[in-house]
Amino acid sequence: MAVEKRLGFAIVQFLRDQTHRSALNSDEQENLEVAIQCLETTFKISSSDCHLAVSQPLREIFLNALLKNDNLTVPETSPSPEDIERAEQLKNEGNNHMKEENYRCAVECYTKAIDLDLRNAVYYCNRAAAHSKLGNYTEATGDCERAIGIDPTYSKAYGRMGFTEEEVSQSSAVTRFLSILLPRHQEHQKHRVKP
């Protein structure tokens, strides 16, 4: 039941996110609230069960599955001109956050831009850069793969993916080194003469 609870929690998070969309009327908002309550009751979960959260929002997991399993690289519908304009504004806000080294806010801005325009490889690649700065290398690699899936000629995505894989490789080497060094250090500390 642990996996089901986590999935239920992810669905509830997704539905909660949907309640914040301004395009919903009051009936739709109420329907979402009822659905959330039903799921929370059924799975015996609440919004305070943060330990059930997954690393990626359900929408991202779903899009990832579409891109990988259905060979879907670009959605069939184009975003509206307003959505494209707002997505560009969000990308620029994300870029400013990157300059300020506020990487979490940058990820949020790029994610919102992606939500508005799934067809723009740059947004995924920029979010990959922010994820890399946060040490979220799995997410960064996934975003690079999505960017390449949308635009196979987008060289920056390949470069970023290479950089991310290099960071993972170095991180693994450090972890291996520490796993060897730490037990030796602890053993040395045990036998050290205390004044």
UniProtKB/TrEMBL annotation:
Start-end of each TPR repeat: 87-120, 121-154
GO biological process: post-translational protein targeting to endoplasmic reticulum membrane
Keywords: Acetylation, Chaperone, Phosphoprotein, Repeat, TPR repeat
Record's keyword annotation contains Acetylation: yes
InterPro entries: SGT, SGTA_dimer, TPR-like_helical_dom_sf, TPR_rpt
GO CC terms, sorted: membrane; TRC complex
Domain of life: Eukaryota
SUPFAM superfamilies: TPR-like (SSF48452)
Any one GO molecular function term: identical protein binding
Residue intervals of the SGTA homodimerisation domain: 4-62
Family from the record: Belongs to the SGT family.
Record protein name field: Small glutamine rich tetratricopeptide repeat co-chaperone beta
Species whose genome carries this gene: Xiphophorus maculatus
